[in-house]
Write a structure and sequence with these properties.
alpha+beta; 199 residues; 2 domains
Length: 199
């Protein structure tokens, strides 16, 4: 990963005496990236400024890292990841349709927000696990090779794995619905019991 070496930015700005250093001490394997007021990102492991594209490369490589505000030490990792997603979505091959994005927005503040987030996370993890298994079964395949293979007719193995994934998603949704129904019935019984006249 190409980076532009430069002097330590702590000499150029009022960097804090360091939440990042404390995090590194508690978990030496965690890569610390500092975000400065000029919006530049500084990788403390490589001692160099990095671009958003290079942070994306860390994600793709499975590297563990945290992005912290250089002054306050606040965790900015989520906002940086969202920024990467925004750039990818603005590119030529977005994942989310307008309908999906609108539905996600509608869940903010909704009573089902927690269930939706948990279900979405479990589904994405199940899909990632399936992808990992497929890659393990075909070592040496790159992304282009997989794209061509997915387009070929009669790929029973891929179809079977996708069907299994769909079934797992349906089962997870059904379990969530059953839990909600049970919780609703329990709450209704408790509510009705509270209003029954005492003898």
């Amino acid at each position: 990963m190409a980076t532009s070496k430069t002097a330590n930015p702590s000499r150029q700005t009022d960097a804090p005496a360091d939440a990042a250093a404390a995090a590194t001490a508690s978990d030496p394997s965690l890569r610390i990236i500092k975000k400065y007021p000029n919006r530049r990102l500084y990788d403390t492991t490589s001692s160099s400024y990095v671009t958003l594209a290079e942070v994306k490369a860390l994600v793709m490589q499975g590297e563990r890292f945290v992005v912290r505000d250089a002054k306050s030490g606040d965790d900015l990792t989520r906002s940086i990841l969202l920024q990467i997603i925004l750039e990818e979505e603005a590119g030529g091959s977005p994942i989310f349709t307008e309908t999906v994005l609108a539905n996600i927005i509608r869940f903010y503040g909704h009573a089902m927000q927690g269930f939706f987030g948990a279900n979405l996370e479990s589904n994405i993890q199940a899909f990632a696990d399936m992808q990992k298994k497929m890659m393990e079964m075909t070592p040496g395949f790159n992304t282009d090779a997989w794209s061509k293979m997915m387009e070929m007719p009669g790929q029973k193995m891929v179809q079977s794995m996708m069907q299994n994934y769909s079934e797992q998603s349906k089962q997870a949704m059904q379990q969530m619905q059953e839990q909600l129904q049970h919780q609703y019935q329990t709450n209704m019984q408790q509510w009705l019991a509270a209003f029954q006249p005492k003898r």
